[in-house]
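User: Second chain of the day. Same drill as before.
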Amino acid sequence: GINGGESGGPLPASTGLGLLCAGGIVMKIAVLGYSGAGKSTLARALSSALTLPCLHLDQVHWLPGWTERAQEESRQIVEEFLEQNTSWIIDGNYSGLCLEERLEQADHIAFLNFPRLRCLWRAWRRSALYRGRTREDMAEGCTEKLDLEFVLWILRDGRAPARRSRFRALLRCYPDKVVVCKNNRDVSRFISFVTQ
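Assistant: Same format as last time:
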């Protein structure tokens, strides 16, 4: 569902456009959701349509070879991005990377709540498409992979009850900004809404 979790529900009452300034649209959009749901794909589409800077948190979190960057360094990169940009698209969950600040500042929050098997299928398709290569929204040197650990994350661990409760609690804090997308049609409606 597009808002409040009900499929086909209404969009938030605010207009799609942010404030206009000499340089164009001023808008901040946070894209959250489950692995494989298409967060980076949505972020790229919005960034292109609105000509806004985009930060993929996977690029911040990972170093080449799937090595995790130090948390403090990652957080500093995100803080600098937030300070330097009046408009932005940021995709990724990463609670330790200024999540509350991102949600507080965002004009719109898209939460991609696709079914588990749909996310797994999308991740499989992505791994086939980028086999042996690094996709554009991932850190250099992190070649695409779909291993057992990631499959279990998509199907089970990434949706553990405590994690789902945390998402619900966060999203309840911003009812006027949150749009829940459960399928591609909802995502298309959200894109149309914010780019109208």
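The radius of gyration is 16 Å.

User: Great, on to the next one.
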